[in-house]
Amino acid sequence: MREHLGSGWSAAVALERWQAVVGSDQTSFSGGKVLVTGSNGFVGSYLVPLLRGLGAVVVGVGLQETDMSGCQEYYRTNLEVLDATRQLVQKVSPDFAIHLAGQSSVGSSWANEWQTISANVGSSVNLLNALSRTGPTRVLLISSGEVYGHIARPAQVEDKLAPCNPYAISKALVEMTVRPYDGSELQIVTARAFNHTGPGRPPTFFEAYVIHELAVAARTGASKTILRTGNVDVVRDYSDVRDVVVQYLLLLDTGDAGGVYNVCSGRGWLLRDIIALVGEIAQIDVDIDVDPARLRPNDVAYLVGCSSLPAFGPRIPFETTLREMYDAEVESLGAARSAG
Q1: Model-level pTM greater than 0.85?
Q2: Domains in the chain, please, with CATH?
Q3: 296-312: pLDDT as tens digits
């Protein structure tokens, strides 16, 4: 189990955050059994403690041998295998399910197009099929703001889907897997999540990569460094993962069955400005070296969401998120050096 995520996140701290934002800690899933797929992933490591703080019994599912997020039960299961998925769901018989599992990187999807589509769609089809056999269940299905594609203003849930990378295509298809269950005992809520980050985010993602590289440079005492990047003149909507998991559980608790919701901050950040901000935090001047190999085909220039959730606040400022991520990375690098 992860004991420290750089943010001091735990069931108790997660519950405090929920109470600060929501007020009441009474939910429909308190005391219920919640199946969380991909529980060992980045978001799962924040979601599981919050669920436990709210009194849920959390059953994790993943491809790893053991649980790393603090679930009361954990099963190693490949959701791309229908029979295995059915056996798991029949054994657990959950009251609720949150489907986090899947390939979540746009960049990686270009190198593994069919694998991304197959994994994300296959696991969703199999999970919904299995859940439909066990009786009434509320399900939160995680999609992505990437499904909107090229759009020059904040995206609204009513906008047409125009996915333009393999990851986005997979998520648009995942949303379509819900349609056969309209009017059934499965109450499915879909969250279109925009970019979210926080301490523990893998450096395969842009902002975490920037933080890692600058933290490494800072440890050498450098006052200036060169950062190899892809296109940094694009705009993305960022939220803190600790806010996102609260929003996910609000949707699981009160979202309309069949409803689709944007999970976003509504504020766009130019990636170049994120580099500058992390440079200020690290006190390092950064020269940007655009690497043609890192450029993505058909990159979306502007991707910001218009929130369709009820009033939500107070949010964790993105500047605070980046600073906590940097501090956690510096701490992690120090621990690794001491261990070595």
Answers
A1: yes
A2: 11-194+240-265 (3.40.50.720), 206-234+268-306+322-339 (3.90.25.10)
A3: 888 999 999 999 887 66
